[in-house]
Design a protein that fits this description.
Layout lengths: L5 H8 L10 H28 L2 E11 L2 E9 L6 E8 L5 E9 L7 E2 L3 E9 L6 E9 L7
Antiparallel strand pairs: 1-2, 2-6, 3-4, 3-7, 5-6
InterPro entries: DUF4307
Protein name: DUF4307 domain-containing protein
Organism: Kocuria flava
Length: 146
């Protein structure tokens, strides 16, 4: 039977490893940091979506081989100037007409359901359209004319 001293074992095999697990304070700090990151991410995601304009296609009319109209509702922040791209498509879904509509501040009587207003875009087309729709809307940073 061997009676090696702890000093001899330590010099031969190295010092025993320290316990590297997180203590109670470490776990609390980790959970707090993760919670702060999750809250900051949620504010970033939700804050960006609230300011974006939204649109809904309401209807369209093909007036002739050279003209069409698109009716749509636009919901936006009252102070924003928003530009919407409107396009006319043919049977093969090819773009045959395109225009931009810029909407600035509107009087209260033009608004319905809070921040929503109705608009009609007139398009010139290169040949017969079968539909006219809003492609996208964005906040116009240049603040173009309404």
């Amino acid at each position: 039977m061997s009676t090696d001293s702890p000093d001899l074992l330590r010099s031969r095999y190295g010092a025993p490893r320290r316990d590297r697990r997180l203590g109670r304070r470490g776990w609390i700090a980790l959970v707090a940091a993760a919670s702060l990151l999750a809250a900051a991410f949620a504010v970033w995601v939700l804050g960006g979506q609230q300011r974006q304009p939204t649109f809904k296609d309401v209807g369209f009319q093909v007036l002739s081989e050279a003209r069409a109209t698109a009716d749509f509702d636009l919901t936006k922040h009252p102070d924003d100037v928003v530009t919407c791209a409107v396009q006319a498509l043919n049977e093969e879904y090819a773009v045959v007409g395109w225009t931009e509509v810029t909407v600035g501040a509107l009087p209260e009587e033009r608004l319905h359901e809070g921040r929503t207003s109705s608009h009609r875009a007139e398009l010139r087309t290169t040949n017969l359209a079968t539909t006219a729709v809003v492609d996208s809307c964005w906040i116009d940073e240049r603040g173009g004319a309404a």
